[in-house]
C-alpha cells in the first residue's frame, strides 16, 4: 500500500507540473501572438477535464479565457 500511495503521489506531482506548464503556455501564447487562438483554449479545457477539481487550473483557464476575449476585442476593433 505504501508504494502504491507513493506512486500515486509521484504521478500526481508530474501531472500537475505538466498542467502548470500548459496553463502558462495558454496565458503567454495569445499575448505574444496578439491573435485569438483556438488551440490554447482547447488545451486549457483538456487540462481541466483531466484534472477536474484543481482550483488553480480552473482559475488559470478563466484568466486565459479573459485574455482570449481581450484579443478578440482587439481584432474586431
UniProtKB/TrEMBL annotation:
Organism of derivation: freshwater metagenome
Keyword annotations of the record: Membrane, Transmembrane, Transmembrane helix
TM segment ranges: 7-32, 38-64
UniProt name for this protein: Unannotated protein
